[in-house]
Amino acid sequence: MVPDEQLLARFFIPTKRERYAEMIGHPKKRRKFLCELAHFRSLDPRYLIPMPPKKLFPDQIAEILTKKGAPRSCWITSENSELDGKEMPLLEALNEVVGRQMGTLLTCIPGRLAYFEGEDMGCRWILERRD
Question: pTM here?
Answer without folding.
Answer: 0.92
